[in-house]
Amino acid sequence: MFFHAHPDDEALLTAGTMAMLADEGHRVVLVVATAGERGLAEVPHGEELGRTRMDELHRSAAALGCARVVLLGYGDSGLAIDGGVAGERPDDAFIDADIEEAAQRLASVLKEETADLLTIYDPAGGYGHPDHVQVYRVGSRAAEIAGTPIVLEATVDRDLLLKGVRLASRFYPAIDVRSFERAYSPRDSITHRVNVRKYAKAKRAAMAAHASQATGGDGDRTLGAMLKIPGFAYRFVFGTEWYVRRGLPRGTRLRHPFDGGPQATP
């Protein structure tokens, strides 16, 4: 089971792994906390955007081979700005949800599916979006309640990310390199490096399904820029997905989501 905050998060962080596990014959279930109705898009915020993004999510899930999509139904909290939340957030915002109640809801799906693996985010929520931080809190607790044996924190290799951001800043000076210095996870804390190059087409199709998130604001956004990368370069740039499994020695290097345990070697 892959637990995400909004539609399109699955495409960016875990799509290759999802496609790989589905191809190997596993039942893959995608759960999102919110419909992403407050995301930046040409479609106005609210129910219309939420419906659009859920339609896109189902297309993405189909491209990845998911057997089921579940919406927990919380409100999109909006993007964090300087540690806060942009604008007036809804009364049912995910960030304001009672963690125990939300965890029980997710745990009921874990139990129903007898899931043996759950992916969440790292404690920082990747780049700090409040809903991503809440995914970590709720997902961690839900796994405890359901007794889910494997919990992986979907993340990005911060060391590699910073190299790319610093290079990009030479051409785009407006990029704030410092904002990435605490994003995601340092390399030595990452336990799983999953090679998903074989599933690059499925991952790209999942990204492309989220058309509403490719543009918005002043022009192309991150997802839109990613989709412009040529195929051979795309496989190289997006051919690895990273996870942290707590309890394993720092520096452990594993290649598959179900790898781990006493036999793991740094």
UniProtKB/TrEMBL annotation:
Keywords: Zinc. The keyword Zinc applies. Pfam families: PIG-L. GO terms for molecular function: hydrolase activity, acting on carbon-nitrogen (but not peptide) bonds, in linear amides. It comes from the Bacteria. Gene3D superfamilies: LmbE-like. One of its GO terms (biological process) is glycoside metabolic process. SUPFAM superfamilies: LmbE-like. Transmembrane segments: none annotated. This is N-acetylglucosaminyl deacetylase, LmbE family.
